[in-house]
Amino acid sequence: MTTNAFEAATVHGEMFDTNELVINMGPQHPSTHGVLRVVLRLDGEKVVDAEVVIGYLHRGIEKLSENRNWTQIILLTDRMDYVAAATSNVGYCETVEKLMAIEVPRRAKYIRTILMELQRIASHCLWVGTHAMDIGAMTVFLYAFRERELILDLFEEFCGARLTYNSMRIGGLPLDIPPGWDKKVLAFCDIMDGKIDEYETLLTHNRIWLERTKGVGVISGAEATALGLCGPALRGSGVARDVRKDEPYSAYAEMDFDIPVGVQGDTYDRYLVRMEEFRQSLRIIRQATQGIPEGPIVGKVPRLIKPAAGETYHAIESPKGELGYFIVSDGKSTNPYRFRVRPPSFCNLQALPRLVRGHLVADVVALIGSIDIVLGEVDR
Amino acid sequence: MIDTFIIPTLKILIVLNATLVGVSYMTLLERKVIAWAQSRLGPMRVGPQGVLQPIADAVKLILKEDITPSKADKWVFTAAPVISMVPALIVYAVIPFGPVVRLFGRDVSLYITDVNVGLLYIVSVASVGVYGIILAGYASNSKFPLLASLRASAQLISYEVAVTLTLVSVILMSGSLSMVSIVNAQYNAHVWFGFVQPVAFVIFVIGSLAETNRAPFDLPEAEQELTGGFHTEYSGMRFALFFLAEYANMIVVSSVATTLFFGGWLRPFPNVAALHFLDVIPSWTWFLIKSFVFLYLFIWIRATLPRYRYDQLMRLGWKVLIPVAILNLVVTGIVKVMLL
Amino acid sequence: MAHAIAFYTLAAFILGFAILVVTTKDTVHSVLFLVLDFLFVAALYVMLNAPFLAVIQVLVYAGGIVVLYLFVVMLVNLKRPPEAHSDPHRMTKFGFGLAGAVLIELGAIVVSGYMKAPAVTSPAQNLPVSGNTEQVGWLLYTNYLIPFEIASMLLLVAMIGAIVLAKREL
């Protein structure tokens, strides 16, 4: 009657033999941050191997793009990394601008930078909230979302939407910032400084947080580079690679900021890197807001966007890592021939099996949070 | 007849009802306090400021469909939540809410009974409560709840050792196992044992957080735990009973902490005559205030701290708390003998 | 009178549960009946004015030892389903014979106990403390200190042995 439960439940096959247990995590799971499926092979409590199964959120964005004109694709890019939509918008627009050699006016560049850095803070807010909540500190989640609300209010004032902005156009911006918006951004920066301290008080020196994150998921810089990690996950391992510094785009060449780099490459270092990125983003926003030049908000763009035949790749630093777009135009139609995205979350997720190996089941959730993935981007 | 039958029955009725109402309102208190810590308001719709929420929850849970897994052991499946709940309630038989007072011309003791092994009774009843969790996992006839329940019960019995060792330190101080004598000993010693035995007190608080499966030791019942927790297959009123049992255990632990470490029903500075005006607050109110402070502390800790991983939790219990508790016991014993 | 009623009720329950322990097919149920048995024995101790022994019975036996029994019962892979209790190697006749011999022996002891005069009661009055807890403690730490320490050592050895046997890597 009930022996089925025993035979299935026991990790000892024969008396005191060990069997490996295969558990499935997701695709519906409160902690996988989207529809992600991870199949874990366990030896008792330790993870022997993990297999990541994706595709549950695949919507065919790249294929859909082939049937849309270049401007329409902007709203598709919103939906990939829906947590940081403005960044995806900018990345795509800059790629097309690179292909067509369109000059974006300085004012538009500054505003784009401000929006991207605000988006970075919003994305990191969501990251810290969900990461902390997975490890058990529920309150940080609500504090982080409180600040994210402030940012979403700023965006709503700018372009009317809170999540999927469609807020860029090829060559610049669709609208100018409303009057007084820059003052609100500066006021937000002042508020945010204190709030970052609040998150740090709750987490950074908390003994339980340290025990849960230090030494968990250690990956060396060389191995991280070999696996294709990017963004804060790579910088946590000591590799100082940031597209904003290495290949400056938008107004970043004129901004003064630092790139935080970790030492050990464990979850705690990735946490510290992102916390410091909060502060650096505020620094950039302040500089940009205080120095917005006057001028047009959109450059010289032909009425019908029809790039000459050719292909180009352009990458920007999204909050999750290096977000790259590769577009191929055949010069004849108003749709791209091929539109390919290099999503940072997809590449970072590849490292998950390597990271969880040898750790306990409870660490898997911490590591998924530490890599900071968005399934919209992973699956497109 | 009145003294031996009616009065004890009345006391039992009052205490049981108060406990059950308290337990259901604990759910509301927790939701509200955690909400306020997280800059939100908590339940607000049902009744003014959400005060009737527990009643709404109870009605909903009673009306839910009664689902039992098909191959589950029916008797054990139903008995498990009951086994969890009953020990939490019967502990109240020995907890003193106040001294002997004069009510309606009779000397009535504000406790149901004073067994001379009261403290041991509490510990033994708490150890029987572990069965509820073990049987819940077993009766669900599914591998994840079984493993989760075994881990949860291992956690409970490990921390029971640490907690019992701290209780022994208190017994050393008071010289008796009876709860009423412990409070009287604090009166005679002019100090609450929490100040004389700070180490034991801290270990008791940490240990009881782990014993009641509260954060930061609540991994066995967290959703992030892949193995769904021992109550995965439970729904409706049985599920509610598990959580009410957890809250009831919290209240029990707070009451015990109050009695042992914070002077029970004594007012602050009970021997200082100058503070006699504080006596306008009756003894049992002091008891309730102090228990409430502990409950608030439990909820506050849940709102603030992340959660320990299971192996870190067990390591903390066995490698830190138990040695420190033993050390505390030895030091207490030595000091007591030296001061004899 | 009330004493006798209480005693016989408790004894009936104890014996009833004990019979259920050995006759139930499902091992987990068997263990649970054992727990109930222990709880009733604790009640019997209370009747005998030994409250300390009663709570220790619940704390140690029902709350500790049987929990470990349950762990083992639940974790060990029970290859044989409960129905397959007809063990071909069962020595039923020998078992009954042995049980009968023990029964006769017990009966002989009881009968001879009735025949002898009641023995002098325990030296409880000579102890400087009163109350069950205090007296047990006194005796345990003065007259019976060495057996107490030896028992503790045995338990420590058993614990270490269990850990060494069960650990897979050090």
What is the total tally of β strands of chain A?
6
> What share of residues are in beta strands of chain A?
5-15%
Task: Summarize the helix and strand pattern of chain A as letters.
Answer: HEEEHHHHHHHHHHHEEEHHHH
Cα distance spanning the termini of chain C: 61 Å
* CATH level 1 class label of the largest domain in chain C: Mainly Alpha
**Number of continuous helical runs of chain A:** 16
In a nutshell, what does this entry contain?
The complex is a heterotrimer of chains A (380), B (340) and C (170). Chain A has 16 helices and six strands. By secondary structure, chain A is mostly helical.
Overview of the structural elements:
The complex is a heterotrimer of chains A (380), B (340) and C (170). Chain A folds into 2 domains: 3-53, no CATH class; 61-379, Cytochrome-c3 Hydrogenase, chain B (Orthogonal Bundle), CATH 1.10.645. In chain A, 48% of the residues lie in helices and 11% in strands. Chain A is built from 16 helices and 6 strands. Chain A has a 3-stranded antiparallel β-sheet with strand order 1-2-3. Chain A has a 3-stranded antiparallel β-sheet with strand order 4-5-6. The longest helix of chain A is centred in the N-terminal third of the chain and has 30 residues, at 106-135. The radius of gyration of chain B is 21 Å and the shape is globular. In chain B, a hairpin with a 2-residue loop joins strand 1 (100-103) and strand 2 (106-109). Chain B has one domain. In chain B, helix 3 (74-90) runs antiparallel to helix 5 (130-139). In chain B, 65% of the residues lie in helices and 2% in strands. Helix content of chain C is 73%, strand content 0%. Chain C starts with a helix and ends with a helix. Chain C folds into 2 domains: 1-78, NADH-ubiquinone/plastoquinone oxidoreductase chain 6, subunit NuoJ (Four Helix Bundle (Hemerythrin (Met), subunit A), Up-down Bundle); 128-170. Chain C has 6 helices and no strands. The relative contact order of chain C is 0.06. The model of chain C has no long low-confidence stretch (mean pLDDT 83). Chains in contact: A-B, A-C, B-C. At the B-C interface, helix 4, helix 5 and helix 6 of B face helix 2 and helix 3 of C.
